[in-house]
Amino acid sequence: xxxxxxxxxxxxxxxxxxxxxxxxxxxxxxxxxxxxxxxxxxxxxxxxxxxxxxxxxxxxxxxxxxxxxxxxxxxxxxx
Length: 79
Hints:
The chain is α+β, with helices and mostly antiparallel strands. The protein is built from 2 helices and 5 strands, in the order E-H-E-E-H-E-E. The protein has one domain (2-76). The chain is 23% helix and 43% strand. The chain is globular, with a radius of gyration of 11 Å.
């Protein structure tokens, strides 16, 4: 599954999101790529079925999370 973090993004926010994702049981970060201008992509792998959109929506840093085809689009809250 890929997470697309929509622009604008702040690298400090991405780091906090990565830390939050690493706390989710059975979820593994596979790859982080992208740019500050075009948005970031985080590839994750789940060890078991989970409702990742619901998990993301509960994170304080996430303003919005929507599943679009095979990716989840995220908007992060401004700091």
